[in-house]
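Take a protein:
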Amino acid sequence: MQKLIRIICLCLLMSFPLLTTQADHHEGQAATIMTEQEVEATLAQGLANLAGDRNVSDIVMRHVDVGGEHLGVSVVQRNHKEAGGPATGIAHPDLDEIYYIVAGEGTMLTGGELIEKTSRVSALLGPIENGEIRGAVQQKVKVGDIAIIPKGMPHGWHEIPSKNISYIIFRGDPNKVMDLKYD
């Protein structure tokens, strides 16, 4: 958990220029805090979601207005996935994502292009494109790793050899396509 706290601090420091340019907008307001206990409870809730008939749990912890854009933090968990079959994935035209792996391991697919893609709009994530990924790069990730996925980049999972994988996603939402969630 100490590593998680350091990563969150690093992400906040990286966004410091953005936050300071909007200082007048937030004068007199407090920072958004997500405690270790809240993160742990959200991780536990996600695992409970996976114990049912779901293969993916995506819980938005916070999605806040920081002035010129929105920033979000979600906890995502996925069940075991064997390698093979068609390589499918998604792309978010409006969202940059940073994954911080907190449990499990897997092989991500990133880049390439979506073939025969379909589009939909989700209240959780705004516009989403789905389809088969062609030409993606496979990269193994494990606890402590960070993946940066720019907006519009196809991404998915080739394999999750562990029982499940848990990661925290930091989402940059400059077009404000996601609904706000302060608590």
